[in-house]
Amino acid sequence: MKKALLLGTSAIVAAGMFAGTAQAADPIEIKVGGFMNQWFGYQDNDDAPGTDTQSFEQWSNSEIIFNGKTTLDNGLEVGVQVQLEANTSGDQIDESFAFVEGSFGRFMIGSENSAGYLMHYAAPNVGLPINSGSQTQHIFNPTGSSSFRNVFGSTFIEPGGDNDGQKITYFTPRFSGFQFGVSYLPDVDPTGGDRNSLITEQDAYHDGFTVGLNYVNSFSGFDLAASGGYYYAAEPENTNVDNFQAFSLGLNVGFGGFTLGGSYADATDGTITDGNSTEGEGFDVGLSYETGALGFSVTYFHGEVEGDTTINGEDEHDSFAGSVSYAVGPGVSVIGTVGYSDFEDEAAGNGDDNDGFYVTTGLALSF
To answer: How far apart are CA 24 and CA 75, in angstroms?
Structure first.
């Protein structure tokens, strides 16, 4: 079963509050870690007339992560993390933040996911994630509705489609299994690009926040993890669209190597960009079993959004996946997934539908 981490955050403001009475015993030292996932697979897309999707695909998702922290004489931990994309990307630095942690909890400031996102639980999956849009590396999504950070493709969402934008976050310590977190986003940045530029309230979603609450405990041989989150962003002032509002729920129950879980997210008021709306809902459900080095899982995801606001109907997405993983050694796993995905555009007959199956294998390394 997925283990819960004591999530926290740190603000430079908080560090300044204590700087006058404490000095670091040792300066911050940076350690290098990260992960590399390399995938190769076969896919069969039901292509629209005039297109011919390739049958094989090799792709990867990898990051080099720089971590550093020090403990001050008063017991406070102050640290930093910078994540470097190992592939050429529009956001070459994926996330970059500082933190301060103590008995009061953790403050974090910088480019990172929000509290609602980080504290969310979803269906277990030991293979290629389908609650994130990774299956679109093999099965093409022609609908125009994105699978990234919105309910069409994931229950891991952010206000206004924010993509690791600059924010301030606070997490409480965990009390009797419960933990609370809250984030404030002055700017909502879905681009994943320059997060240090000033935006205008007239042209972009802004003043966002998320709150998250989860509960983790074990009793009578059962492991339980539950979560809830709320997401908000103020609408651009020069438009007549609504504020962004959404909520999410998640639950995992584990017993004897089995984990059964699922999640739900509802964008009650989605973002509207170029006439396309992300308002809708998504959910997943899955079952996994792990014994020693072996893991197995079956997972299903469904998402639907309003899409083109000028057309009645919704864009819809369904994905199924069965996976197996084997831990060859510390930090080295071999993964295999067989999956099927179906994307249906709200405008019937316009050629923007696609479905297909894929068989892919991966080498997952952590260091």
So the answer is: 9
In this predicted structure, the answer to whether residue 152 has a pLDDT above a threshold of 80 is yes
* Residues 160 and 277 sit within 8 Å (Cβ to Cβ): no
Distance in angstroms (rounded) separating the CA atoms of residues 161 and 133: 14
pLDDT reported for residue 257: 97
Q: Are 267 and 150 in contact (CB under 8 A)?
A: yes
pLDDT at 185 exceeding the cut of 80: yes
Measured CA to CA, the distance from residue 257 to residue 338 in angstroms comes to 22
Predicted confidence (pLDDT) at residue 353 exceeds the cutoff of 50: yes
User: How many beta carbons lie within 10 A of that of residue 249, not counting itself?
Assistant: 17
Please provide residue 115's backbone torsions phi and psi, each rounded to the nearest 5 degrees: -60, -45
Q: Where are the alpha helices (DSSP H) in the chain?
A: 12-18, 115-118
- Confidence at 16, pLDDT banded by 50, 70, 90: very low
43 C-beta neighbours (distance < 10 Å), count: 21
Of 81, 71, 74, nearest to 25 (Cα)?
Answer: 71
Q: Are strands 93-102 and 105-111 parallel, antiparallel or unpaired?
A: antiparallel
pTM above 0.70, yes or no: yes
DSSP state of 12: H
Does pLDDT of 348 surpass 80? no
HSE, CB side, 13 Å, CA atoms: give it for residue 93: 14
> pLDDT-derived band of residue 203, with 50, 70 and 90 as boundaries?
confident
* Interacting residues of 120 by C-beta distance below 8 A, sequence separation 6+: 155, 156, 212, 214, 227, 229, 248, 250, 263
Distances (CA, A) of 228 to 165, 175, 211, 342: 21, 16, 8, 28
In which residue are the tokens 């849009």 written?
Answer: 133
Cα–Cα distance, 198 to 188 (Å, whole number): 11
